[in-house]
């Protein structure tokens, strides 16, 4: 369906994308291209322990590297970001090179703020609070899912309050993203599947968002095509460089799509079970996607028909109002083939915790853009119960 000629929208993606096998080793050229001389690597201890990736990047940077901050944790907290900012200041860092998944990238976005603005990260929570470009930030993703290398948002946990804080600002969009399939080669099958499902949720939520727009739509639809074809291959054989590369591209396109078109209830509900019960973000999205598609079905039939077609379904005889349930079934089939858990009870969420999560989800920023307006936590609870 064509868009209304009166539609106003902004598409914003200034991040330079570099793609190709072993391109991460050219990180020094990219750092110098930003006129920087003192890079702080931001990564996590597991990546250092289990892979040689951070060390390879350190070597590739040579004298341009002033240190490694490796305290990133899953769902990085405000205190971690503030520690990273302190180290960056001590070392005189003038840019950040994040190496890792969403947590490393988001942590570096937070450190970029603290390094530039001073104070503590929590002083800058919210949307469009910053007034100038932040510390230059180059990203080397080691997962293909978050798309955080091209989004203007960082999600950082407030451990004291037990919730996730959102930092949304065009000034924290990374300057450079290097998509090197070699960097995701060692990701285990379950994490490959879970992070890939995060990417497909970004694409589907960008498509059904109340802020949907045509450029993001094009990117989201192509991301779904790539994920449908290459995620099973990447899970099956992690050394399949074609599949790894196409998944990095898919996650990147889905990231750019949702950074502009926003998300919806799948992410609102996933953020809440993540904050309360430490459910992996990709797994939470994967489990919650089917019941959310059913919930939104009567508002998004045309959109879901397009997704169904990508999954190889002949849509001629499917009515738009049936498309949500049909896509949900396809997603369930897809995630079963990937070997991913199907229910919230399988990933450590107790049934009695759902009510609290449903109240928390209502205050999540992503729910604002859901295609159907939701203001009643009882409705959210019903969706959680279907996923439980
Ligand atoms: Fe996500």
Short description:
With 388 residues, the chain is an alpha/beta fold.
Task: Offer a few descriptive terms.
388 residues; 9 strands; single chain; binds fe (ii) ion; 6-stranded parallel sheet; 3-stranded mixed sheet; alpha/beta
Structural features, described:
The protein has 14 helices and 9 strands. By secondary structure, the chain is an alpha/beta fold. The longest helix is centred in the middle third of the chain and has 23 residues, at 214-236. The chain is 50% helix and 12% strand. The relative contact order is 0.11. The model has no long low-confidence stretch (mean pLDDT 95). The strands form 2 sheets. It has a 6-stranded parallel β-sheet with strand order 1-9-6-4-2-3, with helices on both faces. It has a 3-stranded mixed β-sheet with strand order 5-8-7. Fe (ii) ion binds at residues 146, 198, 202, 267, 281, 285.
């Amino acid at each position: 369906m064509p868009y209304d000629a009166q539609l106003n929208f902004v598409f914003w993606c200034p991040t330079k994308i570099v793609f190709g096998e072993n391109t991460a080793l050219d990180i020094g050229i990219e750092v110098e291209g930003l006129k920087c001389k003192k890079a702080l690597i931001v990564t996590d201890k597991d990546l250092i322990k289990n892979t040689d990736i951070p060390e390879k990047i350190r070597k590739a940077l040579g004298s341009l590297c002033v240190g490694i901050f490796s305290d990133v944790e899953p769902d990085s907290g405000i205190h971690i970001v503030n520690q990273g900012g302190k180290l960056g200041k001590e070392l005189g860092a003038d840019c950040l090179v994040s190496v890792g998944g969403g947590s490393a990238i988001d942590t570096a976005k937070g450190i970029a703020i603290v390094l530039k603005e001073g104070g503590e990260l929590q002083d800058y929570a919210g949307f469009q609070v910053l007034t100038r470009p932040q510390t230059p930030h180059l990203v080397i993703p080691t997962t293909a899912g978050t798309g955080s290398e091209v989004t203007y948002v960082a999600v950082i946990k407030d451990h004291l309050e037990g919730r996730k804080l959102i930092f949304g600002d065009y000034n924290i969009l990374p300057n450079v993203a290097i998509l090197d399939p070699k960097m995701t080669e060692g990701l285990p099958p379950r994490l490959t599947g879970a992070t890939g499902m995060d990417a497909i949720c970004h694409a589907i939520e960008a498509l059904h968002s109340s802020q949907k727009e045509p450029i993001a739509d094009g990117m989201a639809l192509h991301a779904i095509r790539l994920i449908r074809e290459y995620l099973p291959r990447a899970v099956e054989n992690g050394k399949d460089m074609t599949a790894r590369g196409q998944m990095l591209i898919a996650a990147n396109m889905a990231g750019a799509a949702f950074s502009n078109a926003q998300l919806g209830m799948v992410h609102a509900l996933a953020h809440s079970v993540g904050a309360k019960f430490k459910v992996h973000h990709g797994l939470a999205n994967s489990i919650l996607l089917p019941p959310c598609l059913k919930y939104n079905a009567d508002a998004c039939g045309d959109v879901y028909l397009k997704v169904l077609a990508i999954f190889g379904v002949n849509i001629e005889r499917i009515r738009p109002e049936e498309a949500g349930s049909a896509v949900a079934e396809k997603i369930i089939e897809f995630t079963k083939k990937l070997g991913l858990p199907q229910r919230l009870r399988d990933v450590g969420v107790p049934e009695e915790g759902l009510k609290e999560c449903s109240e928390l989800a209502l205050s999540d920023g992503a729910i604002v853009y859901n295609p159907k307006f939701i203001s009643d936590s009882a409705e959210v609870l019903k969706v959680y119960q279907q996923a439980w």
